[in-house]
């Protein structure tokens, strides 16, 4: 199963929409717009809003994203790898949460043009990219409707594109990254404590991963090495934020990502 590549459907999706997706630094959007808006939702719910717990302590929105990245990065030098915590990140999806995510990601994409914003909103609402993630994920042991699994998928695609990786991910490699994702998520799980928040977080990352790997794959299939190199550069730049280091300084192993010696 070629998990890194997102299949003919993702290729067709990118080809049909031209270069609109690829012109946006989606890694920056995930790190600084959509994720932070989701975290602000957590803050509001933590103060007693719908679905929230009264008196919950909520990290500032930027701190939550940084906490995820720091905990994940720390594991790239840990030996042996920590065991994955027993924690559930599953959720029951809702149309309401998806509509909210569409608005968040559409607004972020609209910074590059009105058409891009409209296209992104439709992509989220149509579930086209999400359906592709749900199709390929089970083959390597990842599940739909699970925030940790979507986070692992995103980190794999971020690293894969940044490294111009054109081989398959194995189930063992995916399992290793999934353990790292679970450890990182455990530290912020109380900030994403509702189904709606976990759905926003997971679908945002799954869609991001499909777009990112789909754009790179489209360029590779066309033999357009210049375009592929552009996507690699975008992913590498974004990866420095989500990994807190240059993703090309890491290797993928059965224990997850490891800092090169």
Provide structural commentary.
InterPro entries: DUF6683 (IPR046505). This is DUF6683 family protein. The chain has one domain. The model is unreliable at 5-61 (pLDDT under 50). The protein is globular and about 45 Å long. It has 10 helices and 2 strands, in the order ααααααααααββ. By secondary structure, it is mainly alpha-helical. The protein has a two-stranded antiparallel ribbon with strand order 1-2.
Which key phrases capture this entry?
DUF6683 family protein; 2 strands; mainly alpha; 261 residues; DUF6683; 61% helix; globular; signal; two-stranded antiparallel ribbon
H/E element string? HHHHHHHHHHEE
What is the count of helical runs?
10
What overall form do the CA principal axes indicate? globular
| Cα gyration radius (Å) | 17 Å
Signal peptide: 1-22
Pfam families: DUF6683
Keywords: Signal
Protein name: DUF6683 family protein
